[in-house]
């Protein structure tokens, strides 16, 4: 090979190695100290803030449809407005982007927040450099009882949290209740000792609607996960000894097509009086679509709440908390009482005239709260030094064990007690 060709080949190798180095330099491949290195880059003064989803795509839910957004790419590696999701419905404006649309990794400094989903977390795949104006957001809608990752590796990394827990920096619940007459979110502090009895009395006077009419079955449960950390399957096994429970899905012997979920919900509403809205874990503030979905219909949800979060987020006397009954038999006896008394049954629907259930189809409110935070220059800086304590410990996840006080199974009340997990 001539000297000239060797020279050209050498130049090409240097160019290729330089481009490769620039592309991977923003990933962490060394010790944690390098993870927190920063450059003195000032935040953008643009009125529209930029949010980057690092591990996975942000998915906009519209009813039953899920739309992936923010994957377009524009000049200099920054997506144009038409290719990003503009949160134009929020009080402030933000654009949402996904990681795969980045062309030039140096543009990472232009993002105001980077969102890391718990499911995808690994300390070996994070930006190597971070800038002082950026917020690193911990996002999770999964129960903290499921230990997907080692949260010890998150120490001193996140600035903000975005979860269903009320003590998160960005509260992002599965649903909520609002006033039927105005856009006001339900606040349990509005109720005093006289309010509920008065509203229940009004329900007795309004006898135009009987929510029990036509309902010939008692309790239903749709479930596909036959294992849980909440012992819900074990609870229902005992409940069936006292009252009829129809179980749909992989854990039972009844079925309803998943291709038409609205038909299944309407079937529940017309045929059943109660629905088991039981979560697979019992953790602080963990209330999912299993509850909010059913609250949109004329059926009474049965929950198991050891933390009091349903009382904070839902109208009183709109659901039945199985944890208020010391034994499974006591709950079954109460359900049997309601089944035979339409007046008492209808009392659980007093709230329908005053409030409406929102969610879980609308995921935009949480993103608006994140957008508001990014536009608030008065919020002090913050770092979560111990995510294990905040996420794993402070969630106070519990499970159940059963104490059968009588030796005969047929005569047992099935008392239960809870314990931390």
TrEMBL record:
<dbReference type="GO" id="GO:0008417">
    <property type="term" value="F:fucosyltransferase activity"/>
</dbReference>
<keyword id="KW-0328">Glycosyltransferase</keyword>
<keyword id="KW-0472">Membrane</keyword>
<keyword id="KW-0333">Golgi apparatus</keyword>
<dbReference type="InterPro" id="IPR001503">
    <property type="entry name" value="Glyco_trans_10"/>
</dbReference>
<keyword id="KW-0325">Glycoprotein</keyword>
<dbReference type="Pfam" id="PF00852">
    <property type="entry name" value="Glyco_transf_10"/>
</dbReference>
<dbReference type="InterPro" id="IPR038577">
    <property type="entry name" value="GT10-like_C_sf"/>
</dbReference>
<dbReference type="Pfam" id="PF17039">
    <property type="entry name" value="Glyco_tran_10_N"/>
</dbReference>
<keyword id="KW-1133">Transmembrane helix</keyword>
<keyword id="KW-0808">Transferase</keyword>
<dbReference type="InterPro" id="IPR031481">
    <property type="entry name" value="Glyco_tran_10_N"/>
</dbReference>
<dbReference type="InterPro" id="IPR055270">
    <property type="entry name" value="Glyco_tran_10_C"/>
</dbReference>
<keyword id="KW-0812">Transmembrane</keyword>
<comment type="pathway">
    <text>Protein modification; protein glycosylation.</text>
</comment>
<feature type="domain" description="Fucosyltransferase N-terminal">
    <location>
        <begin position="50"/>
        <end position="175"/>
    </location>
</feature>
<dbReference type="GO" id="GO:0032580">
    <property type="term" value="C:Golgi cisterna membrane"/>
</dbReference>
<feature type="domain" description="Fucosyltransferase C-terminal">
    <location>
        <begin position="214"/>
        <end position="390"/>
    </location>
</feature>
<protein>
    <recommendedName>
        <fullName>Fucosyltransferase</fullName>
        <ecNumber>2.4.1.-</ecNumber>
    </recommendedName>
</protein>
<keyword id="KW-0735">Signal-anchor</keyword>
<comment type="similarity">
    <text>Belongs to the glycosyltransferase 10 family.</text>
</comment>
